[in-house]
Design goal:
The complex is a heterodimer. By secondary structure, chain A is mainly alpha-helical. Chain A has helices at 2-17, 19-40, 53-83, 86-91, 97-127, 136-157, 164-181, 193-199, 204-215, 225-245; strands spanning 44-45, 51-52. Chain B folds into three domains: 1-79 and 151-158 and 179-215, P-loop containing nucleotide triphosphate hydrolases (Rossmann fold); 84-149, no CATH class; 221-279, no CATH class. Chain B has helices spanning 44-51, 74-77, 95-103, 112-118, 134-146, 164-179, 191-197, 244-258, 272-279, and strands spanning 6-15, 18-28, 33-37, 59-64, 80-83, 152-156, 183-188, 200-205, 208-213, 226-232, 235-241, 263-268. Chain B is globular. Classes of the chains: A mainly alpha, B alpha/beta.
Chain lengths: 253, 283
């Protein structure tokens, strides 16, 4: 266990020193929040009995930030480490393989938690979106299930990415359309119900739903277990694929 | 203790139709620097990666530190250090951090400062790996293999692509490993590197060992023909002989009788390089 802590400490250093990682994972979601809040201003929307649009976007951007810190960050950083032979080299040491994965997953969860706190605080300070303190346990449950599931999906995705250069495009081609279809970028009262039905089959929409329900006080239940179960099933599928197809050596070896 | 550190017999490995390693036998003794010398594509990396436990063999017997690398576990990995062919450093960690990260993987690592000193990176401890020169990176690579205080080190082409100065620095580091009592298994395609560093050399070509021995008596240089060359009437003359004393006597006797010099007279044994090129020539 102390070995996982050791690995995590260095993974954190590497993450925060990598300008691209910090920009896309930390700053980009915040920039998006500012843009959406500025463009759509004081509108109220017909979601959860009528709420301000900023109240909608705070959990939406947290959803995006969590997926980005977990699935996208892991997929990209693991592919780079694999293709540059760092995974292979690490396997040549006594460190067990699972410690390496645990360090990376831990790193993603730390960043995801931080983003949750950061976006929630900014939402409160800039737009007066209340932070649902009373629902902290529920938020954490949703966060942990979501983060763990998207970590598994990120690790599984590495098997489909052949080179470093392909990592970002492949991750974006998968995630960007899903953000749109899942109501992360466009409020879901603007989306045709067919689109939502479609998005419900993929993990981002149910994760967003669970997170939204936990975050916005007016919503019916604190934890939407049915949605969260869909996320967890995707995560489990990712875990199985990762266990079967994850590679430690560069492609072609 | 006199058991060989590495013992290989009849090692075979194919990739599809291609036989990369075709029945290799060799022993590496404790405390020696062993060079595995051969041109690109000869099967060096395949062999060393089988020894490191990265690849599975198709046939043959294999023992590294008394274990079969395919089945060896954590305890075994505590005792070996690996430098892969391509550098694999984390660019955002400093020299000291890279070493400390790896030190954490081992039960009884060497102090990081000591390793920095041993690989000649004193003064670079706080420099990020991404900002080091090629030669410095390679030395950090060796340091990361050394930090666990292994008995046996594998170095796969440690100086490929280096300028002469960086090579010399890397050679000093590798020579220093011998002083530390490490056993070193080194692959290289540089003749002079093997000659300079190794106690014993095996030459591999097309998956087979074609010569082995100390750098001095490799390829039986002593018994090979001697080459004599000189200039006569502005023309280069070269001949090879197994009886150099007699040939030289005849040549010089004739020249002396005719009252002329043998211009640019040279007598030479085939260099190790000549032997190497001949042995590894692809037909």
């Amino acid at each position: 266990m102390s070995l996982v802590w050791h690995q995590l400490r260095y993974d954190q250093k590497v993450f925060w020193r990598n300008p691209a990682a910090v920009f896309f994972t930390v700053l980009f979601p915040i920039v998006l929040l500012l843009i959406f809040a500025t463009v759509f201003g004081d509108q109220t929307i017909d979601v959860a009995g009528g709420i301000e649009i900023t109240t909608y976007y705070v959990p939406a951007i947290i959803t995006l930030a969590v997926v980005s810190a977990t699935m996208q960050t892991l997929a990209m950083s693991l592919v780079i480490a694999r293709e540059e032979g760092r995974l292979k080299r690490g396997r040549g040491t006594p460190m067990p393989a699972w410690v390496f994965i645990a360090g990376r997953v831990g790193n993603s969860i730390v960043v995801a938690t931080l983003m949750l706190a950061l976006v929630a605080l900014l939402g409160r300070m800039l737009y007066g979106v209340p932070i649902p303190w009373a629902r902290t346990p529920e938020l954490l449950v949703v966060l942990v299930v979501g983060a763990a599931s998207f970590c598994c999906l990120g690790i599984a995705l590495t098997a489909a990415i052949p080179t470093q250069d392909a990592a970002a495009p492949i991750a974006n081609v998968i995630l960007l359309p899903l953000y749109f279809l899942s109501g992360v970028f466009i409020p879901d009262d603007e989306l045709p119900s067919g689109v939502i039905d479609f998005a419900n089959h993929f993990p981002i929409r149910p994760f967003f739903q669970s997170f939204f329900d936990a975050y916005v006080p007016g919503s019916a239940q604190a934890i939407a277990w049915d949605h969260l179960a869909v996320v967890a099933i995707w995560g489990l599928g990712g875990l199985l694929l990762a266990a079967r197809f994850f590679r430690w050596t560069p492609r072609g070896e | 203790m006199d058991d060989p550190v590495i013992s290989i017999s009849g090692l075979r490995k194919s990739y599809g139709e291609v036989e990369a390693v075709r029945g290799i036998d060799l022993d590496v003794r404790r405390g020696e620097v062993f060079a595995f010398l051969g041109p690109n594509g000869a099967g060096k990396t395949t062999t060393v990666e089988i020894l490191e436990g990265y690849r599975k063999r198709d046939g043959g017997e294999l023992s590294v530190l008394g274990e079969d690398p395919e089945r060896a576990g954590r305890e075994w990995r505590e005792r070996i250090g690996i430098v892969l062919q391509s550098g694999n450093l984390e660019p955002y960690l400093t020299v000291a951090e890279s070493l400390a990260l790896y030190a954490g993987y081992y039960r009884a690592p060497r102090p990081v400062e000591e390793v920095i000193e041993a690989v000649g990176l004193a003064g670079k401890a706080g420099e990020r790996a991404g900002r080091l020169s090629g030669g410095q990176r390679r030395r950090l690579d060796v340091g990361m293999a050394l930090v666990g205080d292994p008995e046996l080190l594998f170095l796969d082409e440690p100086t490929t692509g280096f300028d002469p100065e960086a090579r010399r620095a890397a050679w000093d580091v590798i020579a220093g490993l011998r002083e530390l009592g490490k056993t070193v298994f080194l692959t290289t395609h540089y003749m002079d590197e093997a000659q300079r560093l190794a106690d014993r050399v095996a030459i591999i070509a097309a998956g087979e060992i074609v010569a082995r021995g100390t750098p001095e008596d490799l390829g039986d240089r002593e018994s090979r023909p001697v080459r004599i060359s000189y200039r006569e009437n502005g023309r280069e003359v070269a001949l090879e002989t197994t009886t150099p004393v007699r040939t030289l006597n005849e040549l010089t006797g004739r020249a002396l009788a005719e009252g002329r010099e043998l211009e640019a007279l040279e007598v030479s044994r085939p260099s190790l390089e000549d032997v190497y090129l001949e042995l590894t020539k692809t037909p």
